[in-house]
Design goal:
29% helix; seven-stranded mixed beta sheet; alpha/beta; 283 residues; five-stranded antiparallel beta sheet
């Protein structure tokens, strides 16, 4: 008997992946966690029925949400990650020797525990001495911070359930307050393709531009995310993501990547016309 995982990308579109085995399944106080082993994508982390990562393509997401801001400001010392319980963002940040402190606010301890046990390819840097994990809601955690972080990375689930509060005007305003004078905020920005995702993307952007004067959007190709076309937000008090790109610093760092490079960095901010028009409509 064949076992298939199916995820709705819209009311009329599904992604189906053939599964070898169910590795882990748990209902926490916050969400349903499932980890599958698949034939083509390796291990798959699913939260509340939505793919968060697969072993085959997770590097695209984690590299693009991390190395873009780090290549713009190589002098980042203090970082806050919100979400990211799978460990992929931590893994990429820990490649930078100049980072002194990484705070991570993750609401669900079970995600971290399951990732450590079953997703070692992402959850491989949780023992780094610079990392401090706070099992708290990201919205309440950042509310008490002021002028503390050079970089905030919001690696959240979709804008409902446990992640809903991380897409509000209040949250982005608190992130602005928590950043230093040259701080950068990077967030997952949803997809522009299907109608519901596009509407969520526009809501996110409309709220961010109310707090940040400089708010740009960039893109990556992630095969298992809805439509494969995924967006990220880059917002800053000082730095421009292309004008201030420090290509020499990234080259000198000798950091190994599978997707990110500085040529791609520049190209990722060149968006399709229909996406540009969506963003302009809410700015």
């Amino acid at each position: 008997m064949e076992f298939w995982y199916a995820e709705n990308h819209s009311k009329n579109v599904k992604l189906n992946i053939r599964i070898k085995d169910v590795i882990y399944s748990c209902q926490t106080d916050f969400q349903k966690i499932d980890i599958f082993d698949s034939y083509d994508f390796g291990r798959i982390l699913v939260l509340d029925g939505y793919i968060m990562l697969t072993e085959k393509d997770e590097f695209v997401y984690h590299e693009m949400i991390t190395h873009v801001p780090m290549s713009v400001n190589p002098n980042i010392k203090n970082v806050l990650i919100i979400g990211a319980g799978d460990g992929g963002v931590v893994r990429e940040l820990c490649k930078y020797k100049n980072i002194e402190k990484i705070d991570m606010a993750e609401i669900d301890k079970k995600v971290v525990e399951a990732s450590i046990e079953y997703l070692p390819f992402t959850a491989c840097s949780f023992k780094d001495e610079r990392l401090n994990i706070h099992f708290k809601d990201g919205l309440s955690f950042v509310r008490s911070k002021e002028n503390e972080y050079d970089l905030i990375i919001v690696d959240s689930t979709d804008p409902f359930g446990p992640g809903e509060g991380l897409f509000t005007k209040e949250f982005y305003g608190n992130c602005y307050k928590a950043l230093t004078d040259d701080g950068i905020l990077v967030n997952q920005h949803e997809s522009p393709f299907y109608t519901n995702d596009a509407n969520a993307m526009k809501r996110i952007h409309s709220r961010i531009v109310q707090s940040f004067d400089l708010a740009k959007v960039y893109q990556a190709h992630i095969p298992t995310y809805p439509s494969g076309h995924w967006l990220f937000g880059f917002s800053s008090k000082k730095y421009h993501p292309i004008k201030d790109l420090n290509e020499n610093s990234f080259a000198d760092s000798k950091i190994n990547t599978k997707y990110y490079n500085t040529a791609l960095h520049k190209g990722a901010f060149a968006l399709p016309t229909y996406v540009e028009e969506m963003l302009k409509s809410v700015e």
